[in-house]
């Protein structure tokens, strides 16, 4: 599974951040969101960017304890084995793995096939590709 | 839940920064934003305080929806005593800074006193400090924001003033994210008078709610079935420029200082012209609509112009050149001036010239003098010294009061009341003066099905809309989502974890509106101030379907009397004791 993003449709509302943190963390906190979308005026223009889990599983490869496994490009963390070392976050080419103070990495798991970020995107900028 | 229960209080005189609990009793009665702000201001301000003195306070507020997934909840409220007219002032500004403030651990910030030196306030995850701002003084808001983001990180959000605020122009505004403003009534001048250049906020905390699954379900349904529907989606497809053509067709497009109700050059300012120049769309935090139009026209660029700027800074100045209006908008944003009051003031000066009263070098339709004005005002240079007085000040100095388009010192926004009589009542009774945010009956009159040229039923319509907006801007929701009290209650219930009834919200709206009235009454405003410029009563409209119409003074007086009675106010417009008891305002 993969998330796809069309920048020209994004209005920068960050409902995706709010949905992700609300559903996964039970609190609205964009900094805990497992994707990053930004719409900012930079260098005299409106620049829209997104970082999304691509399902590359670099995190699983980087994990020194084998705590991250992946099936069909969906990473799963075994909390009993994870030491919270943060190697997965360092290795993530998209920079979307969140390492909160509790030391447990937050990885996008595509919400079991129905990503809430997609469900909340009001303008269809985010879509899921199976 | 829904609140952080934390207030940041900053004494700019002593530099003392303290944290205190949110007054929960007040939060229960006023919710947040506009309502809670006016409650704090009413309780804490000495009556008669000079708005530009160290005795005034300026309060930045969030509401129970702020920072949550409730759509269109991204705006920050700003409450203070207006330096333009001494009335209660509340504005709101979009972007992301309101959510950021809550993520940083605060429901609201109270700024009081006056700093001996220019400073800016930094709030980072609960910690707050005042920093020296000498290096920012004199710089525009674009530059200021860029510099502060360099110093405090890209994730930070900035609220700042430009040179207009520093130089205490009474219609200076506050800017956030370059192009969004708490525009009206001079909040920027209050910042300037206190020597505070900016507030920078960065927060990585969160906002909890009582019932997360319940809220997610209610908000998703509200977004799909109520928000993203034809009623509201104009905000995405067109945004407020859509109103240019609607105002032209209904004969309420302010033209040449309200001398005409239609503009021959309206097409160059209307939505199709704006769409051709559109370079992007931008929303506030949590908004599914994204009304912001990033516009690039020739060498000019801005997020906007909104309808108020297209009308008051366009047709009302006789300017039919979109690039000029985009430039005007960008200049005002960077200098930190309210485009409505600036445009209205220019238009008034243009008519003064035309009438031979005073020539400040401005002529209807002349682009170059029009584009020179904002900078002269912001730096109080040359004729800018005079224009800084605003419409009322200029008319008091030179004359022309009958066509000085202002109420209580606040300049008219973009709706002609002779072509929408309820809007006349809304202007006359709005707490901050001629204001389109207190009530917007044009939607039902000029733009809708109700007869715009009658006072029948308008007192009740305006009062109801005033309660609705007062409550909506306290929860804080955006103006552009036309949702019901029932739906607001459905969304608030899972946040607070208690059953909220629509009636409770409506009553709170009335309570908030009455408290604003009590504030103004305490400051010496009376029913005599609830009036309109003579032009509205005496001169027939030129152009459009309402050509020849006036708003007859006796009809206006009748409507105002009915409005006072409906409100439970006496003949002088002062709330009666029974009204105050009913609204828990004693």
Summarize the entry for a quick read:
Chain B: Keywords: 4Fe-4S, Iron, Iron-sulfur, Metal-binding, Oxidoreductase. Chain A is α+β, with helices and mostly antiparallel strands and 130 residues long. Chain A is built from four helices and six strands.
Distinctive features:
heterodimer; A: 130 residues; alpha+beta; Alpha-Beta Plaits; 2 domains; two-stranded antiparallel sheet; 4 helices; 20% helix; B: 586 residues; Aldehyde Ferredoxin Oxidoreductase,  A, domain 1; Aldehyde Ferredoxin Oxidoreductase Protein, subunit A, domain 2; Aldehyde Ferredoxin Oxidoreductase Protein, subunit A, domain 3; 3 domains; 6-stranded mixed beta sheet; 17 strands; globular
Topology:
The complex is a heterodimer of chains A (130) and B (586).
Chain A: E1 2-5, H1 15-25, E2 36-42, E3 45-51, H2 58-62, E4 68-71, E5 74-77, H3 87-91, H4 116-120, E6 126-129
Chain B: E1 7-11, E2 17-20, H1 24-30, H2 33-44, E3 57-61, E4 76-81, E5 88-93, H3 97-103, E6 108-112, E7 119-124, E8 127-132, H4 141-152, E9 157-160, H5 163-166, E10 174-176, E11 180-182, H6 187-193, E12 196-202, H7 212-227, H8 234-237, H9 242-250, H10 271-276, E13 278-282, E14 292-297, E15 300-303, H11 307-312, H12 322-335, H13 339-354, H14 367-378, H15 384-387, H16 390-398, E16 406-407, E17 410-411, H17 421-429, H18 458-475, H19 485-496, H20 502-522, H21 534-538, H22 553-567, H23 577-582
Parallel strand pairs in B: 1-6, 7-12
Antiparallel strand pairs in B: 1-2, 3-4, 3-6, 4-5, 7-8, 9-10, 9-12, 10-11, 13-14, 14-15, 16-17
Helix pairs in contact in B: 1-2, 2-18, 2-20, 7-19, 12-14, 17-18, 18-20, 18-22, 19-20
Plain-language structure description:
The complex is a heterodimer of chains A (130) and B (586). Chain A is of the alpha+beta class and 130 residues long. Chain A contains four helices and six strands, in the order βαββαββααβ. The model of chain A has no long low-confidence stretch (mean pLDDT 94). Chain B folds into three domains: 7-202, Aldehyde ferredoxin oxidoreductase, N-terminal domain (Aldehyde Ferredoxin Oxidoreductase,  A, domain 1); 233-420, Aldehyde Ferredoxin Oxidoreductase Protein, subunit A, domain 2 (Orthogonal Bundle), CATH 1.10.569; 422-582, Aldehyde Ferredoxin Oxidoreductase Protein, subunit A, domain 3 (Orthogonal Bundle), CATH 1.10.599.10. Chain B is of the alpha+beta class and 586 residues long. Chain B starts with 6 loop residues before the first strand and ends with a helix. In chain B, the strands form four sheets. In chain B, strands 2-1-6-3-4-5 form a six-stranded mixed sheet, sandwiched between helices. In chain B, a hairpin with a 2-residue loop joins strand 14 (292-297) and strand 15 (300-303). The A-B interface holds A 11-15, 18-19, 21-23, 25-32, 39-41, 44-46, 48, 119-120, 122-123 and B 67-69, 71, 74, 96, 99, 103, 154-155, 177-179, 204-209, 212, 215-216, 220, 223, 227-228, 236, 279-290, 292, 294, 301, 303.
